[in-house]
Amino acid sequence: MKDSYDVVIVGGAVIGASVAYFLTANPDFTGSVLVVERDPRFAQASTALSASSIRTQFSNPINVQISQFGLSFIRDFAKVMQVGDDRPDLNFHESGYLFLANTDAQAQILRENHAVQRACGADTVLWSQAELADAFPHLRVDDIVLASYGRSGEGWFNNTGLMNGFRAKARAQGADLIHDEVAAITRDGSSISSVTLKSGAVIRAGIVVNASGPRAGLTARMAGLDVPVEPRKRTLFVLDCAKSPEGSARVAGGRLPLMIDTSGVFIRPEGRYFLSGAVPVDDPAVDFDDFTPRYEEFEDIIWPALAERSEAFEAMKVINQWAGHYDYNTLDHNLIVGRHPEVTNFLFANGFSGHGLQQSPAVGRAVSELITYGAYRSLDFTQVGYERIAENRPFLEKAVI
């Protein structure tokens, strides 16, 4: 480690690692990169504790396009991320997402979202009740008005594989990745000059990238700035079904998609089991170290909804559970990417609200372009920049899980 870097990235999970990879992969960037990560085992990282999925079924074109790039990157990941003889396989299950609507209002949202998705070239379709029943005969669909299904370009994959692939390749390309913690950020007027690490080292920094997940607010405050991001807890349950419906679908080779029920409960296959979760009834900010699962959510929210939706889900038991944190953007639940308008060498890559893993390839590329060229050259992230935060102007996304 040196005492001065052109770019210091605070946070070395999937977002920070992606930024480091794209910077060091770009021949037009000739600077030095330091990635500082406080949790070397990533035991509490949102990346490692996520449901590891990607979808194009959003309501805003930018979110659809972000996922489309992520999809292409995931498909080519083993080749692009190869280091020596290691070709990291993300084990991508391209089995789709399935959104269900049981009211006219929900159905209208699906129609509006579908129009946006199709305009972007996403492979999504709308199904009637009869078409849904034919595709997935295990479901009870009497209450369903409309369904939206991703025929391709959606699914789930190895979350830590994506992160570790980025990290290994960034290191091979010259980035320095260290286990330490940023304890202070020195700001001189409208410019960041250095970061101080918990170990005592002071590192001069040309640019600081805030990629610190649920702790983004803490990092911003060190620089005298503010970002509306807080940790919100989500509990995931691994479930064993006595009569698994996997293999019963009449599409996708019998594979079931990730289904979002009308109740908001989601479920998807996970090997021979299923993975499920739900938005809590009460959803307050939690302590940064609070990772105790909300065990009651299975009995109170998840099982009743799933048992009503399918006979196959009536007899199921929990075999594992864990809790992770969303880096929750309290303004509009959408990513915040770009420079601070006044402290221009402080960049945000925060507030993903559960979408950070799938959005990490496009975000890493965007931040690297902003650093290297002073502007976006691929996707234009201006509409999800920090300016809307300063102006208290939400950028709403209707398809939030």
Automatic annotation (TrEMBL):
Keyword line: Membrane, Oxidoreductase, Transmembrane, Transmembrane helix
Gene3D superfamilies: D-Amino Acid Oxidase, subunit A, domain 2, FAD/NAD(P)-binding domain
Entry keyword Transmembrane helix: yes
Sections of the chain in a coiled coil: none
Keyword Oxidoreductase listed: yes
Domain (FAD dependent oxidoreductase): residue spans on this chain: 6-370
Transmembrane stretches, start-end: 7-24
Record-linked PANTHER family: FAD-DEPENDENT OXIDOREDUCTASE DOMAIN-CONTAINING PROTEIN 1, SARCOSINE DEHYDROGENASE-RELATED
Name used for this protein in its record: FAD-binding oxidoreductase
